[in-house]
Structures are given as structure tokens and as C-alpha cells.
Amino acid sequence: MTIGGSTIEAELAALAPFASPAPAITLDERLARIERARKLTRDAGADALIVGAGASLNYFAGVPWGASERLVAMLLPVSGDPVMICPAFEQGSLAADLAIDAGLRLWEEDESPFALTAATLRDLGITALAVDPALAYDMVHRLGQAIAPVEIRDGSAIIHGCRMQKSPAELALMKQAKAMTLAVHKATARILAPGITTTEVRRFIDQAHRKLGAAGSSFCIVQFGHATAYPHGIPGEQRLAENDLVLIDTGCTVHGYHSDITRTYVFGDATDDQRRIWDLEHAAQQAAFEAVRPGVLCEAVDAAARDLVTRAGLGPDYRLPGIPHRTGHGIGLSIHEPAYLVRGDKTPLAPGMCFSNEPMIVVPGRFGIRLEDHFYVTEEGAEWFTPPQPAIDAI
Which burial class, exposed, middle or buried, applies to 208 when counting CB atoms under 10 A from its CB (0-12, 13-18, 19+)? Predict the structure, then answer.
């Protein structure tokens, strides 16, 4: 497709809300998640699980709040109803978001939420509590002091055991988010013109996501020319020039589920060296994809991409020029979540697991090429959420 040649106004006018939105997660699915969490909590030798505000609270209870200095949490006993610990002044907001039936334990601003949690655990007869791994250390420390002698256990296996494998409903929401972001990438390529700034491009990407029905961009990285040699960019404004490489990494959310797609292409004519590295990046991305099978360890997918690049004379390992970071990360309600496609992660792949595939190649001081699409694991191998970019001069 064409890179350049259009305008911001024309491309925004051509965008409309997504035609067939995926349905939200149902109550029945949330209740099934809770039952699985109860089983895994029993397996971990605990009587209850505490889940703090953040992606996991959204996953179980539909509450999309971020963590703050105030404790907002769900206590999930292995039997009996969940209990929400919440500031009293947030009761109305919590009721508006809460997607499950749960008891309420409310604390005033001059009261200790940890003492309230301790009293709730006593009332429930809890002697061992599994803790959400995303709960801040300070909160875990204060909680531990308040609930002693209740034993605190690591809840990572419970949380990850629930969230890593996505259901068909989750996959549908992620497919929508990624389709929306890919459409934004295509529109963005068409608005490029000499002199356009990275700020103007980021603003367009946010507006384009909104036109499609997202709440704007969840993040946006725009890099031109030599700035592409830095995986997450460098400070300052950049203006596009003829024959610059363009690297854009952006995404949005649909009912909390993330997209995260990167495209690297040339505005003008690529050099032979840029084409060679782009083709090698494309091959490394494909090698990682082809390595995916249920039961294969996550680190083996990273090795497939890294070994191909090493055979081409780059690296080895994380040395530059070569691949400076992991091949991919899990994705879902968090943009980066376990498991990870990196050396040392021995998590076996299983159907429903979702990952980015982005074995970026960096040539220090000159340029970088990152192609990022996502796949989900199937019974036979892997399926792309979005088709990989076909060429350095096409989206």
C-alpha cells in the first residue's frame, strides 16, 4: 500500500466505529474464573486469595481500577462469597463497576484497611492467605503485620494459572483490538509527509483509535531515522525527512484487552543494508512463529529467532548489532504479562496463551527494525492475530 500521499483530515474522515464489536466477558465466564482460582488456591495450600486493584481485579470482578496508595482488594475464600475491601467513599463507584456478587467491607480514611482485612480473615476462619503478585510490597508488608499469625503465600501460580490461557471470548476481544490498531497503522502510513513531527503523528494515532471506538491509544512510540536504533525511543521532537526509516509501536484496549503492534518501514527509498536487516527481522519473526507448539518451552521460541540472526552474523546472545531484548511477552488485560519468550522462561506453551512476536534487530547508532505482531497458541501450533508486514516499503 501507499506510504504518504494522504492527509490527516481525509484519513480521520474515512474511519468509523468498528463494525462488529466483540461481546464483553459474561458473568458466567467470570464465575468460572473464580472457581478455577479457588481450585488453584486449594492446590497452593491456602484458604483464600487476595487480589489487589489492577488487571487481575478486572479479570475476576470486572473492576477496572488501577492500584493506588489506598487498598482496594477482593478476598476470595476457597468456599463462600468473595468479599471486597474498599474505601467507604468509593462504595458507589465500586457498585457501578463490580460485575460479580460480593460482600463489602468498607474502611474510612482514618481507619486501617489492613486491620479490616485481618478482622475479615478471622471472621472467615482463614489461616493461610495467597497474595496477588502485583500487590505492592508496602501493602503486603503492612498486611502481613496486621494479619499475623495468618500465613502469607505467593499467589503467582494462582493468578498466572488463571490468566495465561485465554478463552474464546478473550481472544475475540483481543482480535478486535489488534484489528483496530492495524487499521490505524495503515492510515498513519498514508498521512506521512516531509516535515511532519512525531507529536503530530502520535496525536493522529490517538484520534484514529478514538474514531474506531477505542478510548484513544493506550501508548504510542513514534521514531524517525536514527531514533529507530533505540528500542523505546529518545527524548525530543523529530521531523520526518525523505528516506527516513519510520518505527511506530502503538496499541489500544477493548474491554481492557490490549493490542500492541509495531511497524517499521521506509519513507522513500531504503538502502541495501536496511533492506537486508529488515528481511532478516522478518525471517526471525517467522522462525519464532514456526517454533510454537503446545509443550514447547517459552525460551525455545526466543532461541529460534536468536539462532537465525546469529547464523546471519549478528549477535550472539544480546550483543549488538543483533537482538537486544526478548522475542516476546504475554499479553491480555496487561500489555506485558507472563509468560515471556526469553531465555530462562521454561513455561510450557499451552493452547490459549497469547504473545507478542518482536525480535527487534538494532544496528547501534544507525537504525533499528522492529516488526511486532501477536499470536495465540493452538492445539497444532500458532495463529496470527494480525498478518505480518510484507515488506519494508509496504504496511
Answer: buried
Q: Note whether 55 and 218 are within 8 A (CB).
A: no
Q: Which residues pair with 239 in a beta bridge?
A: 197
Across all residues in the chain, what is the average pLDDT? 97
Average pLDDT over every residue of 350-362: 98
> What residues are paired with 254 via a beta bridge?
257
How many C-beta neighbours within 10 Å does residue 108 have?
Answer: 11
Crossing angle of helices 113-124/137-147, nearest 10°? 50
DSSP 1: -
> 2 falls in which pLDDT band (50, 70, 90)?
confident
Residue 144's CB is within 10 A of a number of other CB atoms, namely 15
Q: Which three cell numbers stand for residue 340?
A: 515471556
Residue 42, H or E segment: helix 27-43
The three-state secondary structure class of 117 is helix
Q: Which amino acid is at 187?
A: A
Per-residue pLDDT, 395: 87
Asked if 325 and 360 touch (Cβ cutoff 8 Å), the reply is yes
The grid coordinates listed for 385 are: 492475530
- The DSSP annotation for 252-319 comes to -EETTEE--EEEEEEES---HHHHHHHHHHHHHHHHHHHT--TT-BHHHHHHHHHHHHHHTT--STT-
pLDDT at 1: 52
Show the cell assigned to 141. 508488608
Q: Which grid cell sits at 5? A: 500521499
Which tens digits make up the pLDDT trace of 248-265?
999 999 999 999 999 999
